[in-house]
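Much of our argument rests on the idea that a fold can be written as discrete symbols. The record that follows shows the chain in one-letter code together with its fold in token form.
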Amino acid sequence: MALALAYLIIVIYSISLLLIFFYSLAQLNLLINYLSQKRENTTAPKFNLLDPKEIPFVTIQLPVFNEEYVMDRLLENIAKIEYPKSKLEIQVLDDSTDDTVITTAATVTKLQETGLDIQHITRTDRSGFKAGALKEGLKVAKGEFIAIFDADFLPASDWLKKTVIYFKDEEIGVVQTRWGHLNRDYSTLTKIQAFALDAHFTLEQVGRNSKGHFINFNGTAGIWRKECIIDAGNWEGDTLTEDLDLSYRAQLKDWKFKYLENVETPAELPVVISAARSQQFRWNKGGAENFRKTVWSVITAKNIPFKTKFHGVMHLLNSSMFLCVFLVALLSIPSLYIKNTYGHLDWVFSLLSLFTVSTIILFVCYWFTYKSIQGSGFNNFVDYIRIFFTFFSVALGFSLHNTIAVIEGHMGKRSEFVRTPKFNISTIKQSWKGNKYLAKKLSPNMILEFALMIYFMFGMYSAIPLNDFGLFPFHFMLFLGFGFVFFKSLTSRA
């Protein structure tokens, strides 16, 4: 029985390691694509905005829900967009349930008095959440192109002029821009969030888009062709990441996506771990939901090449990597004892080198994306090493939380769309503690995260009597990661 259990552990452990390794190889391929990509857009056909006949009508949609702290900033910023007023409409899609409905209505009225075509659209039935609001606004939208911004995004005044021009190519359904970060240096938490997002918005988006593989509209800071939205089946609220869902449905119908790495749209990162938790849960569960909903359509599609299918499947499996990482972490301690108990199984543990190789590949990939934004040089490389291992440790610490999200997504368990609280905070001197939208209750997962912190401390101790220190660094990072998530969750409450 004990030997059978050992074999079961090794099989699960090995499969998880192999999946992580394949994921890292996919990332390496994206890096090669990224480095070979010519980032100039000069050859693409563009609208000539100096010719009034070529200026397209644009609707800007602002889906908002209880955004007391950023609503004024959002509307003030959007009002500064440089575009002919006769060709611009703004829809404030307001699903708020608090007093911000009244204050927003008053601000919208003032902006209307300046000659701005801005409408305040509310719903009595909040079905479909963000997807439902976008779909409702689309029914009455005047524009042939639909730009979307979440409440914490602050596009530059010339943003539309830099993006809408690419729709002269009638095959393009979406133009997406790179997210920037208003409060990157606020704390360790914001630094690692920015680090992870930068990798996605450089390595992954450029790496896929440059070779015609599927990418995703990121829910904000991009523009849709209205015809593309309708042709792809319109917004649907049956997953928590409606943006990924519609993106894949559109690309399966041969619409092209244009990604602009050189156009940055700054936004605010969550400064409290409870807010980061809710955002991570939604993104990872939504990713798993979309895998369940879409992967078979990708695999069986006859209009896309094999390599695009491969990257599409790996893209949809992104969040599921947390499940693999968590299984590897959880089973690493039993595996350590199996290795030192059953000598004839020692060869199996050469698979451990796969995790080391995977880590090295990700280290190299992320360095190229880091230096594209932060710059190269010795000092930046030293900073990079520090932030990479901090990010890696905290990502391990989030693995339980995100694994639960992934399992729920794959099982089809439905849950409400939980918005990420916004703060309008950029410096450490500003306090988030008065934010009325923060969850007051502690996450029940904290008990398990504390237990896992102790569990991996035991893993570090196990290296001593077994005289096997190969997994010690891994267990140390797991100990730090779960400790960080636990103590931050315990102390960072409203």
In short: Residues 2-35+319-491 form one domain.
